[in-house]
Amino acid sequence: MVRLDIYASSEGPGARQVPLTPEPGPERAELARRKAELDELTRRLAEQREQTSVAERRLKSSISQLEARERRLADLEARERKLAGLEAELAKREVELERAHATEIDAADVQRQRRRLAAQEEALSERTHELRRLEQQVEERERKLAEREAHVRVELDFKEDELEGREQALAEQERRLERKESELTAYVGQLQGRLTVARSA
Q: What secondary structure letter does DSSP report for 14?
């Protein structure tokens, strides 16, 4: 609120106090109305800035969730590589057993080695089955992750468009606010000029 106080000169023994010239009623009401508009614009600007801050925090949260999903996918891929290494090791052992069978003379030893090979083949079959099951799980998780990533990207695009729209609206309101402030400053200057003229008269 702008206060304009005018005091008469009190120099000299015969000086008298000049009474305050009251502000014109309509002009004072217009000034109050513009002050109220300025306060309302300031409040709306603060609200929109808060909404923009909330949207940015949500966007960062979505990005963090996407990064966490990517880390889980990397873990699954590492497990898959580990299982592939186990399968290769079992295949190598199977080859070694087959070579041992070819050079073994003792029938009992050959039989024992065959039993061991059968057990290893069974273990390999079970692990191969487990590997296939894990591969299916990985593929299913990859599919779900891809769907979620697509959904998150759509949400991010929507949020970005919404933020751009809000930023444009905020910029427009800031320009209007600056224009209102300039008009109010000019109007206050005019009032001060009129009061100065009235005081001089």
A: T
Residue 23: DSSP 8-state: P
Buried b vs exposed e over 97-129: b needs ≥16 C-beta within 10 Å?
beeeeeebeeeeeeeebeeebeeeeeebeeeee
- Asked if residue 76 lies in contact with residue 138, where contact means CB atoms within 8 angstroms, the answer is yes
- List the one residue out of 141, 145, 180 whose CA is nearest residue 30: 180
Tell me the two tokens of residue 177.
């606010």
Alpha helices in the chain (DSSP H): 25-103, 107-200
d(CA 108, CA 161): 77
pLDDT in tens, 108-154: 676 787 888 888 888 888 888 888 888 899 899 889 988 988 888 88
86 contacts 126 by C-beta, under 8 angstroms = no
∠ CA 200-28-23, nearest 5°, is 30
C-alpha angle with apex 192: 19 to 179, nearest 5 degrees? 150
pLDDT digits (tens, 9 = 90+) for 150-187: 888 888 888 888 888 888 888 888 888 888 888 888 88
- How confident is the model over 13-47, as pLDDT tens digits? 444 444 444 445 678 888 888 888 888 888 888 88
Which tokens hold the place of 84? 């592939």
Are 87 and 124 within 8 A, CB to CB? yes
pLDDT of residue 8: 37
CA 46/CA 177 separation, integer angstroms? 12
